[in-house]
Design a protein that fits this description.
This protein is an all-beta fold. The chain has no helices and 11 strands. A hairpin with a 6-residue loop joins β5 and β6.
Length: 127
């Protein structure tokens, strides 16, 4: 069973940066595409970004494109989300998720397609 643990959340300032990490264990990390999602109070969970198994393909929600960067290190079994130019509307609980894929180049942006989830890490951006 794959297990995911997020870290790196916390308070941030508008215009500032935070870096989230997602450590994965229990299965072969490189068999999984990785996704980041977020959920703000009173709102539905929304897609943020995803990365393919090898890291060669990435995709971003329009709201974070150009500000956030997803990456992964398959030697460290860890995925990352670098968040720059933070905005108060980025405030949410951020979750990483793993999706087992046969194909290296594709992934889903639908949260229902993901097989395993971390516990979430709170990001709070003040203006």
């Amino acid at each position: 069973q794959v297990q995911l643990v997020e870290s790196g959340g916390g308070p941030g300032q508008a215009g500032g940066s935070l870096r989230l990490s997602c450590a994965v264990s229990g299965r072969t990390f490189s068999n999984y595409a990785m996704g980041w999602f977020r959920q703000a109070p009173g709102k539905e969970r929304e897609f943020v970004s995803a990365i393919s198994r090898s890291g060669g393909t990435t995709y971003y929600a329009e709201s974070v494109r150009g500000r956030f960067t997803i990456s992964r290190d398959n030697t460290k079994n860890t995925a990352y989300l670098q968040m720059n130019s933070l905005r108060p509307e980025d405030t949410a609980v951020y979750y990483c998720a793993a999706q087992e894929r046969v194909n290296d180049h594709s992934f889903s942006i639908q949260w229902q397609a993901y097989d395993a989830w971390g516990q979430g890490t709170q990001v709070t951006v003040s203006s």
